[in-house]
Amino acid sequence: MARNPERRALLADAGLRVLADAGARGLTHRAVDAEAGVPTGTSSNYFPSRAALLAGLAERIFDRIAPDPAVLADLGGREPSVALMTDYLRDIVARTTREPGLTRALFELRLEAARRPELRSALGGVLRRGYADDVAHHAAAGLPGGAYEVALLHYAVDGLLLDLLTTSIDAGFDPDQVVSTLVARLVGGATDRAPLGAPGAR
Amino acid sequence: MARNPERRALLADAGLRVLADAGARGLTHRAVDAEAGVPTGTSSNYFPSRAALLAGLAERIFDRIAPDPAVLADLGGREPSVALMTDYLRDIVARTTREPGLTRALFELRLEAARRPELRSALGGVLRRGYADDVAHHAAAGLPGGAYEVALLHYAVDGLLLDLLTTSIDAGFDPDQVVSTLVARLVGGATDRAPLGAPGAR
């Protein structure tokens, strides 16, 4: 029963609605069961702790903002270049801003886990796997730069999304132009050496 | 009475404790009055709406993480360069990570205001002034780059802080090295043209 993926997704979606309505403090197994209209105790079968619940919601967010296979096939068929890397990043920004609540929910989960050390490890595992997948995809696609550049772009795009999806500094620049510049300068314009010896570094 | 700056700061600090303890949903005038140990209605005199309360808390965060005058004097006495810009950014990261709860609280306020459009404008005003001050300081100090570079660094450092202060992707690179690279590549390595005509652009 606890292995039914549709039911797991249904419960995680109910959890995301609870998070949006009641905030991270209101995110309890009982509230998720009530929102999903299932017997009390159901969500605990799928997510046996609050840490597992947060991690499960984060996984569901990544699933829901996953790339369109047709877009991936199109990008995957092109020669690796800074221009291709820019189009990958544009697709990430398009996917994460299309349903703003999902990316906001991920920020909220990250904040909630930071307050409570016992929640940090499970959610951190989901984020670490996401970064490792990005690095592996980057290398497999032969894109310019390595793990260091993937991390730099990750930070810069997270900050841009924070600006676009929460309260903005209203700098007035076109987000699409900002994405192009970030890739051109952080990846294409790299003239200094990336640090060696860091875990995951090229 | 509502113009007593010490009392205003005391109430804002109580509001930041409420935010940390009860989350953004628990941040009400009544809870702030109780936390500050003042008669009900006091915080409404200083912050007449929930939007004003959020903006007041953000202003207080900026005050509390303001640069040390001795550090500013030291940096202000040096020749403008990419190296100086890097040291300014290092000081920002040092100040914002020293009291992690303050920067987390600012992320939380930005998320809360994103959910409720009536809160967005007051908090946005505080953030816009912060960015405008950064651009003005940058120009006055003769630092390399312009408003566009200040915005790019703002996004990248916000994303880095999100990683350092909430739940990390654990890429394993030294934050100090990341800051140096961000400035070197986003400001020093700028070979493309910044967009013209954007509000606030150089």
Structure overview:
The structure is a homodimer of 202-residue chains. Helices cover 71% and strands 0% of the residues of chain A. In chain A, helix 4 packs parallel to helix 8. Chain A contains ten helices and no strands. The C terminus of chain A is likely disordered. Chain A is mostly helical and 202 residues long. The radius of gyration of chain A is 19 Å and the shape is elongated. The longest helix of chain A has 24 residues. At the A-B interface, helix 7, helix 8, helix 9 and helix 10 of A face helix 7, helix 8, helix 9 and helix 10 of B.
Write the layout of secondary structure elements.
The structure is a homodimer of 202-residue chains.
Chain A: H1 5-22, H2 29-36, H3 42-46, H4 50-64, H5 69-76, H6 82-98, H7 100-115, H8 117-140, H9 147-165, H10 175-188
Helix pairs in contact in A: 1-2, 1-4, 4-7, 4-8, 6-9, 6-10, 7-8, 8-9, 9-10
Strand content of chain A: under 5%
**Bulk shape of chain A:** elongated
**Helix-strand sequence of chain A:** HHHHHHHHHH
Number of helices of chain A: 10
Rg of chain A computed from alpha carbons, rounded to a whole number of angstroms = 19 Å
> Could you say which structural class the secondary elements and strand pairing of chain A correspond to?
mainly alpha
- Oligomeric state of this protein: homodimer
| Average pLDDT reading of chain A | 92
N- to C-terminal distance of chain A = 43 Å
Largest sheet: number of strands, sense, barrel closure of chain A: none
Largest interface: A-B, 64 and 64 residues
- Percent of residues in helices of chain A: over 70%
Annotation, overall tally of beta strands of chain A: 0
